[in-house]
Amino acid sequence: MIGQNVSIPAITALSRRHYVPVGAAVGLATLALSFLPIADSFLARTLLFYAATSLAYVLMPFARRGDVPLVSAWVVLFSELSPCITGELMSPTNVTADALGVLMAVGPIYIARFRQVQQGDTRPAGRRASER
Description:
Layout: H1 19-34, H2 42-59, H3 67-85, H4 92-118
Helix pairs in contact: 1-2, 1-3, 2-3, 2-4, 3-4
């Protein structure tokens, strides 16, 4: 076993064609939960967005590293703009809690990639072009 490459199958059985509906479902569920009274406190909102972003990474292991936080940012935006329809103002505290939750989930992934690059673990340019 030592020195041999070991193939570890992905935990999820989702294929890439299911990523859009799964991502939409996670985003809509997060958005719906953010309007409930249980998400009124700073800590609850932070944990909600942390859990949702982490869940998206777990369910979609082959999604690009930057796609999940991009979609999470859109969910944060919708979460804060939706109350404006009913005449309420955006809450800077809620925006901060939401963004902090996303950052808590995304931060370790980018730190790990930074460490890989510093260690020289880079792939040759144009590798995606050969995957077509």
